[in-house]
Amino acid sequence: MMQVALAQVAAVDWGKVFGTAIKVLLILVLAFVIMRLGDAAVERFFNNWNKLGPVDGRRAQTLRTLLKSGLRYTVYFIAMVTILNLFGVRVEAILAGAGVVGLAVGFGAQNLVRDVITGFFLLLEDQFAVGDYITAAGVSGTVEEMGLRVTRLRDFGGELHIIPNGQITQVTNHSRGNMRALVEVGVAYEEDLDRVTAVLQQVCEQAARDMADIIAEGPHVLGVVNFGQSDVVIRIIAYTKPMQQWYVERELRRRIKEAFDRENIEIPYPRRVVLSMSGGERRDQVSGW
């Protein structure tokens, strides 16, 4: 039996075995070098991108990881196919079987593929970033997390909305550029509009000084925009930093109310007249205009 084993060992073409082993080793070394060079090229690409303009760190990290992973898996696949060819394995049959399986899986994972592709372009085009307040897929909220498959939004009620990226066909970003703050105030028809406008202008100028860190432009008194049933409506607008427009509107309303109280400017409000009969006597309770 020992003689049989020695005969089998002697029959092996050791030159071919060592040659194949060296080729496999060279392929692995070459794959490692290509991956290192590819990683360096990706890092250099993002470093040059940062020099051209600021890039959101989370978005840049996601794209960097995505490119590195794609390169790594591509190199692994090519190296594996090449090594299998060295050992005489029919790679064509394996690829054909994998193609059939991949086609079947592809039909069942269309939504997943669509989500991933859409997520990639959302990141690449920088349509929104973490911390932005957006409206997408019929939902509004602050972006808490961006992924290749889903985006997570937190609305003002505290509810977390998880949206597949494939459902995001239109995005409204409320955090890019200055936002408009709009306030409309009604005054009685009997008031002097020039005097009212002057008071409002003083309020706006003081508000602009006090909130200069969040107000980018204005506030401006546009003038009369409507005649109501019991009031003349005057509009005021300002442009603020993102997500500060609601605070500016609330503060302007508070300041306007205080200024009107000081200047005895009337803001009309609904009133009622109640008639009651008690012991044959009529008592009037007036609450109205």
Characteristics:
five-stranded antiparallel β-sheet, alpha+beta, 289 residues, 10 strands, Alpha-Beta Plaits, 3 domains, single chain, Helix Hairpins
Give a written overview of the molecule.
This protein is an alpha+beta fold and 289 residues long. It has 3 domains: 14-108, Helix Hairpins (Orthogonal Bundle), CATH 1.10.287.1260; 118-173, SH3 type barrels (Roll); 179-263, Alpha-Beta Plaits. 52% of the residues lie in helices and 24% in strands. The protein has helices at residues 2-11, 14-52, 57-86, 91-108, 110-125, 193-210, 245-263, and strands at residues 133-136, 139-146, 150-154, 160-164, 171-173, 179-187, 215-227, 232-240, 272-278, 281-287. The chain has a 5-stranded antiparallel sheet. Strands 6-8-7 form a 3-stranded antiparallel sheet, covered by helices on one side. Strands 9-10 form a two-stranded antiparallel sheet. The longest helix has 39 residues, at 14-52. The radius of gyration is 36 Å and the shape is elongated. The mean pLDDT is 80. Residues 71-110 form the Mechanosensitive ion channel transmembrane helices 2/3 domain. The chain crosses the membrane at residues 20-38, 70-87, 93-113. Residues 183-267 form the Mechanosensitive ion channel MscS C-terminal domain. One of its GO terms (molecular function) is mechanosensitive monoatomic ion channel activity. It is found in: Cell membrane.
CATH architecture of the largest domain: Orthogonal Bundle
Number of strands: 10
Helix segment tally: 7
Weakly predicted, low-confidence segments: none
Radius of gyration: 36 Å
Question: What number of domains?
Answer: 3
Beta-strand content estimate: 15-25%
| C-alpha geometry | elongated
Average pLDDT metric: 80
Q: What is the H/E order?
A: HHHHHEEEEEEHEEHEE
The separation of the N and C termini measures: 119 Å
Biggest pleated-sheet summary:
5 strands, antiparallel
Predict the CATH topology of the largest domain. Answer: Helix Hairpins
Report strand order across the widest sheet.
Answer: 4-3-2-1-5
CATH class of the largest domain: Mainly Alpha
Strand pairing plus helix content: what structural class?
A: alpha+beta
Helix content: 40-55%
